[in-house]
């Protein structure tokens, strides 16, 4: 029996004790010596010019060190490319404090630096700024005719495929046809930890930068390019991140501010955002979608048209894949997918958990529900009838796809067969009961990733890869993979991340971290294992002599022959016997290009939701959710389940609560705080069941990992809206499904 | 946040004196609202006078047989006080419907009366607001006003009073005990808060030098037939879109005495005595409740995003009165209030 078999086991978080005891330090918690504090001043107008900044008034306050603004920022990098980070969209990135132009409300316009945090905040509140106001335009609803197709989008964006078949004609000829417009306003990520950077000034231009980010290397590159620093001068550390959800994929402006101030003042500086300023950055864009479906007499999809228009800023063309999924989730030969952006006076939107797909699946899956009613077919049966056996967008086979099993297992667990299809037919006392379901699909991606491993004579293995753990369990699963690969107990393995001195890892996003870093860790440990085997074979009387790496296994602290497990060498004994202090390996894992290009690589899920609605008061509660997920191999069912639980809560939040409401008179989000931007509290969340339908898939990547960051969210909002329809007979296509909409 | 001095009040009289001498003094008790307001630069007191050490924490019998709630007793201690639970369960329910356990552990009864509106514009100094900056205009009228008032509004302000506790206190006909430079006085709860009118900067009717020392609950029994129904966007830590405090005394099925107050709909806890009169002497039926509800909203006015509150208030009143009459606040809607 193997005691070092950890993959697939519900191992507790290895970073749990550090987090609950406070030993885990976040960016704003590094109390470096002689620290100064910066407070950001945000613009009160949405568009115009700064005409005067009364900096002198607050510089007179003892302890105020400097007021940085466009008036005194030194000359920095000139070209746009210097400001482009790994996932910058097309266009011209916003440059903080460089120019007097105000492009959106709450734009950072000044940084006040003082000896204490309180003083910086106080002085910032006193800073008088005069503006020349220009008329702004923040309402996407007025831009319906001004949409344009983006040119080159950001990394990972794929333009919608060309239309296939004859969708217009087939929609006209369809037996049943439904159409609808689906809308949601902007939504902000709002991770618990606010953006902060502590920049430790080490003399000359040398900096230690503690940053809240989902990619230390991305922050490093940005700082290097903008401020002309070397790698050595811009050392970035980000070991713990209090939630990201995509908000940390791009360097946020507090990083620029803190580095600027540290270099100019030649001392250490910390800049943290306020909760309100967390609404001054990227967000899920306000999106208008149109979906039209047609079916044949047998309930098969005859044609599909999905159109999306969403906001972007005046200076960058943010893109996400909203409509593409609709061309691959169901079998349909006549498909038209169109996608447009419109520019308004806001900051550029940004990837937010399942960017594009969360939006697109809401519209498509509600439309599928509407069609199921129109055609008189059970919504689950309707989806099974239109099950896609291959990816019609890419014209490829799926590397694996157990969505059908998700439907069956989810439905069985939920008790779907007991559903009465008639709206308003199911009751619990005076409450209306509604059951709805929906489907989701997300990319199973992998990125190039480097890792190193060091095994020391005391029997300890340390593995490094400069990724991030945004709370998902990266520390834990990488420790599991490393320990199992070299047959060591978990306690003998330390995985470190979040430091630009470590081997380079991709941004922590896109659901690719487990696959990218996981396979890199596996490879580098195998490389180290080969060295260990060689040394073991040189030991006196070694039973492993002549064995190839494939002929042995690393289990229970031993290397042993597959053919005879009693022929073994204790791993701890190898280095002392060979007289070495340590063994090291470094490796860069590259995705297999053939597998990546030959197959369609995706994770899927099926969500079943029960809601209860008070028909008189319009109050709605999600009382039960079953989320069945097929996402390849599950490395740790405990952290994996946690991730999907979080996704479900997020989906309920999207369905029922979240919206950043803009007052177009001011061009400003008005509910910019945790009190008025609602996300669920514990009392809003009831039973959630997570089912993993495991897939064995050696094409997606050697470890068979598909990633779980986003897929669990998909379908949840649509399933809630569909359940609300089943309960009430009211089709709400405009999120959130709130009391005012259910009441009237 | 501005720079301020912080001192502790040595006694009620001293506190009153200090406040009278300097209008820039602000009292702080639990601090659950004023600190937020200071961080947002909405309140900028130059002096904070801490009341927490004054001997006003007691909850004890009042001379008329009612209950006296010390101004510095916390909301949590008040809600869970055995006499409150037994004799004034409506107040218990209202307090527990508000805020979060952490906030209720800090917040005091006196402070609850003085909490300020959660109007988005009041909180955001980048926008005009007559309450924050008299004469600057009301941004909520014509702006985003989903959480705003439908009753007793003015052209200057449509903000709501955010308290849950105060809605129950209005329904229970509480009396506020006040100390000032001219000695003590009592204020009927209905006269404590005010409507915005031409001076929305004033939330209440106290003089600048006055300090709340206690809240008296009269010796009346609404412990059998009551309901605090709070409708909001999430189950905790959200202000009421509409809340209703309903309390009845029944003789068989006939309503002997009725109390009805609403939260989330006006600049003050909105007690409607006309509607109470409509209920009195009538059978406790849905028809009666509907008439009372219609009376309450007869003068209501919507401003766009908040217009749904008129219908919601009507239905909530009927439901709350029904629950009160049945004595089953939670039976018919298990989700309406999710108290611990």
UniProtKB/TrEMBL annotation, chain A:
<dbReference type="Pfam" id="PF20256">
    <property type="entry name" value="MoCoBD_2"/>
</dbReference>
<feature type="compositionally biased region" description="Basic and acidic residues">
    <location>
        <begin position="141"/>
        <end position="152"/>
    </location>
</feature>
<dbReference type="Pfam" id="PF02738">
    <property type="entry name" value="MoCoBD_1"/>
</dbReference>
<dbReference type="GO" id="GO:0005506">
    <property type="term" value="F:iron ion binding"/>
</dbReference>
<dbReference type="InterPro" id="IPR008274">
    <property type="entry name" value="AldOxase/xan_DH_MoCoBD1"/>
</dbReference>
<dbReference type="InterPro" id="IPR037165">
    <property type="entry name" value="AldOxase/xan_DH_Mopterin-bd_sf"/>
</dbReference>
<dbReference type="InterPro" id="IPR000674">
    <property type="entry name" value="Ald_Oxase/Xan_DH_a/b"/>
</dbReference>
<dbReference type="InterPro" id="IPR046867">
    <property type="entry name" value="AldOxase/xan_DH_MoCoBD2"/>
</dbReference>
<dbReference type="InterPro" id="IPR016208">
    <property type="entry name" value="Ald_Oxase/xanthine_DH-like"/>
</dbReference>
<feature type="region of interest" description="Disordered">
    <location>
        <begin position="141"/>
        <end position="168"/>
    </location>
</feature>
<protein>
    <submittedName>
        <fullName>Xanthine dehydrogenase family protein molybdopterin-binding subunit</fullName>
    </submittedName>
</protein>
<dbReference type="Pfam" id="PF01315">
    <property type="entry name" value="Ald_Xan_dh_C"/>
</dbReference>
<dbReference type="GO" id="GO:0016491">
    <property type="term" value="F:oxidoreductase activity"/>
</dbReference>
<feature type="domain" description="Aldehyde oxidase/xanthine dehydrogenase a/b hammerhead">
    <location>
        <begin position="21"/>
        <end position="135"/>
    </location>
</feature>
<dbReference type="InterPro" id="IPR036856">
    <property type="entry name" value="Ald_Oxase/Xan_DH_a/b_sf"/>
</dbReference>
TrEMBL record, chain B:
<dbReference type="InterPro" id="IPR016169">
    <property type="entry name" value="FAD-bd_PCMH_sub2"/>
</dbReference>
<dbReference type="InterPro" id="IPR005107">
    <property type="entry name" value="CO_DH_flav_C"/>
</dbReference>
<dbReference type="InterPro" id="IPR016167">
    <property type="entry name" value="FAD-bd_PCMH_sub1"/>
</dbReference>
<dbReference type="InterPro" id="IPR002346">
    <property type="entry name" value="Mopterin_DH_FAD-bd"/>
</dbReference>
<keyword id="KW-0274">FAD</keyword>
<dbReference type="Pfam" id="PF00941">
    <property type="entry name" value="FAD_binding_5"/>
</dbReference>
<dbReference type="GO" id="GO:0016491">
    <property type="term" value="F:oxidoreductase activity"/>
</dbReference>
<dbReference type="InterPro" id="IPR036318">
    <property type="entry name" value="FAD-bd_PCMH-like_sf"/>
</dbReference>
<dbReference type="GO" id="GO:0071949">
    <property type="term" value="F:FAD binding"/>
</dbReference>
<keyword id="KW-0285">Flavoprotein</keyword>
<dbReference type="InterPro" id="IPR051312">
    <property type="entry name" value="Diverse_Substr_Oxidored"/>
</dbReference>
<dbReference type="InterPro" id="IPR016166">
    <property type="entry name" value="FAD-bd_PCMH"/>
</dbReference>
<dbReference type="InterPro" id="IPR036683">
    <property type="entry name" value="CO_DH_flav_C_dom_sf"/>
</dbReference>
<dbReference type="Pfam" id="PF03450">
    <property type="entry name" value="CO_deh_flav_C"/>
</dbReference>
<feature type="domain" description="FAD-binding PCMH-type">
    <location>
        <begin position="1"/>
        <end position="222"/>
    </location>
</feature>
<protein>
    <submittedName>
        <fullName>Xanthine dehydrogenase family protein subunit M</fullName>
    </submittedName>
</protein>
């Amino acid at each position: 029996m193997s005691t070092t078999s950890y993959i697939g086991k519900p191992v507790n978080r290895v970073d749990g004790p550090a987090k609950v005891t406070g030993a885990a330090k976040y960016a704003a918690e590094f109390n470096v010596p002689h620290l100064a504090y910066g407070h950001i001043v945000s613009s009160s107008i949405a568009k115009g010019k700064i005409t005067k900044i009364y900096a002198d008034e607050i510089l007179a306050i003892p302890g105020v060190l400097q007021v940085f603004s466009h008036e005194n920022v030194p000359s920095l990098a000139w070209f746009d490319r210097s400001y482009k980070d790994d996932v910058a969209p097309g266009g011209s990135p916003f440059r903080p404090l460089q120019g007097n132009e105000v492009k959106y409300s709450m734009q950072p316009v000044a940084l006040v630096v003082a000896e204490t945090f309180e003083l910086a905040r106080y002085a910032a509140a006193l800073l008088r700024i005069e503006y020349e106001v220009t008329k702004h335009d923040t309402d996407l609803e007025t831009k319906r005719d001004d949409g344009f197709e983006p040119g080159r989008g950001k990394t990972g964006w794929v333009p919608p495929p060309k239309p296939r078949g004859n969708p217009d004609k087939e929609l006209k000829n369809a037996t049943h046809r439904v159409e609808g417009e689906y809308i949601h306003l902007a939504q902000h990520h709002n991770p618990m930890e606010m953006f902060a950077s502590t920049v430790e000034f080490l003399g000359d231009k040398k900096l230690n930068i503690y940053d809240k980010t989902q990619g230390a290397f991305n922050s490093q590159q940005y700082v290097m390019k903008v401020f002309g620093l070397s790698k050595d001068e811009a050392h970035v550390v980000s070991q713990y991140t209090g939630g990201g959800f995509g908000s940390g994929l791009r360097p946020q402006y507090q990083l620029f501010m803190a580095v600027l101030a540290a270099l100019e003042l030649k001392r250490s500086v910390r800049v943290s955002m306020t909760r309100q300023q967390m609404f001054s950055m990227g967000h899920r864009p306000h999106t208008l979608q149109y979906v039209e479906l047609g079916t044949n007499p047998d309930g098969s999809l005859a044609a599909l048209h999905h159109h999306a228009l969403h906001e972007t800023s005046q200076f960058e063309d943010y893109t996400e894949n909203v409509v593409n999924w609709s061309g691959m989730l169901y079998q349909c030969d006549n498909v038209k997918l169109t996608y447009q952006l419109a520019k308004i006076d806001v900051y550029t939107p940004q990837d937010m958990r399942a960017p594009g797909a969360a939006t697109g699946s809401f519209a498509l899956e509600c439309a599928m529900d509407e069609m199921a009613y129109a055609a008189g077919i059970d919504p689950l049966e309707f989806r099974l009838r239109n099950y896609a056996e291959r990816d019609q967008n890419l014209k490829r086979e799926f590397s694996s796809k157990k969505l059908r099993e998700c439907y069956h297992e989810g439905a069985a667990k939920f008790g779907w067969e007991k559903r009465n299809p008639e709206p308003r037919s199911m009751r619990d006392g005076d409450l209306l009961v509604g059951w709805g379901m929906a489907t989701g699909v997300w990319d199973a991606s992998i990125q190039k990733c480097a890792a190193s491993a060091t095994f020391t004579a005391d029997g300890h293995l340390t593995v490094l890869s400069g990724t991030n753990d945004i709370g998902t369990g990266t520390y834990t699963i990488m420790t599991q993979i490393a320990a199992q690969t070299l047959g060591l107990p978990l306690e003998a393995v330390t995985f470190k991340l979040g430091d630009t001195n470590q081997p380079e890892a991709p941004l922590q996003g896109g659901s690719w971290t487990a696959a990218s870093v996981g396979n890199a860790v596996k490879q580098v440990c195998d490389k180290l294992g080969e060295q260990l085997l060689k040394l073991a074979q040189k030991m006196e009387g070694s039973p492993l002599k002549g064995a190839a790496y494939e002929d042995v296994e690393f289990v229970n602290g031993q290397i042993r022959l597959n053919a005879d497990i009693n022929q073994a060498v204790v791993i701890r004994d190898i280095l002392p016997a060979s007289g070495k202090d340590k063994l090291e390996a470094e490796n860069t894992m590259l995705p297999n290009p053939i597998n990546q290009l030959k197959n369609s690589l995706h994770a899927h899920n099926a969500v079943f939701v029960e809601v209860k609605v008070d028909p008189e008061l319009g109050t709605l509660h999600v009382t039960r959710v079953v989320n069945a997920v097929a996402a390849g191999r599950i490395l740790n069912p405990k952290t994996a389940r946690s991730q999907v639980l979080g996704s479900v809560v997020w989906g309920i939040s999207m369905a029922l609560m979240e919206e950043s409401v803009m007052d177009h008179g001011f061009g400003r989000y008005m509910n910019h705080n945790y009190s008025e931007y609602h996300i669920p509290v514990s009392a809003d969340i009831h039973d959630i069941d997570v089912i993993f339908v495991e897939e064995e898939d050696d094409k997606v990547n050697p470890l068979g990992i598909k990633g779980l960051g986003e897929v669990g969210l998909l379908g949840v909002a649509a399933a809630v809206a569909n359940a609300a329809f089943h309960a009430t007979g009211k089709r709400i296509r405009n999120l959130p499904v709130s009391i005012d909409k259910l009441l009237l | 946040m501005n720079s301020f001095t912080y001192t502790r009040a040595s006694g009620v009289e001293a506190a009153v004196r200090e406040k009278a001498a300097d209008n820039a003094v602000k009292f702080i008790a639990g601090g659950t609202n004023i600190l937020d307001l200071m961080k947002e630069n909405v309140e900028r007191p130059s002096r904070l006078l801490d009341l927490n050490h004054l001997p006003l924490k007691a909850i004890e019998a009042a001379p008329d047989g009612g209950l006296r709630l010390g101004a510095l007793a916390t909301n949590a201690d008040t809600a869970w006080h055995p006499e409150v639970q037994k004799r004034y369960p409506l107040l218990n329910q209202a307090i527990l419907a508000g805020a979060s356990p952490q906030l209720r552990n800090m917040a005091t009864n006196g402070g609850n009366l003085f909490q300020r509106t959660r109007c988005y514009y009041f909180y955001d100094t980048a926008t005009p607001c007559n309450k924050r900056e008299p004469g600057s205009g009301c941004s909520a009228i014509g702006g985003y006003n989903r959480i705003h008032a439908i009753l007793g509004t003015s052209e200057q302000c449509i903000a709501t009073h955010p308290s849950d506790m105060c809605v129950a206190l209005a329904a229970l006909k509480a009396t506020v005990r006040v100390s000032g430079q001219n000695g003590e006085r009592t204020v009927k709860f209905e006269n404590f808060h005010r409507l915005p009118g031409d001076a929305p900067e004033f939330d209440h009717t106290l003089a600048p030098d006055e300090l709340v020392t206690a809240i008296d609950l009269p010796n009346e029994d609404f412990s059998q037939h009551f309901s605090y129904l709070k409708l909001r966007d999430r189950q905790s830590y959200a202000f009421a879109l509409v809340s209703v405090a309903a309390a009845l005394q029944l003789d068989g099925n006939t309503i002997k005495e009725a109390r009805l107050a609403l939260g989330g709909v006006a600049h003050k806890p909105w007690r409607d005595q006309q509607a109470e009169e409509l209920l009195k002497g009538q059978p406790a039926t849905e028809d009666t409740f509907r008439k009372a509800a219609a009376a309450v909203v007869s003068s209501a006015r919507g401003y766009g995003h908040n217009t749904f509150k008129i219908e919601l208030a009507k239905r909530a009143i009927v439901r709350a009165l029904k629950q009160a009459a049945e004595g089953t606040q939670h039976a018919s809607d298990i989700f309406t209030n999710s108290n611990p």
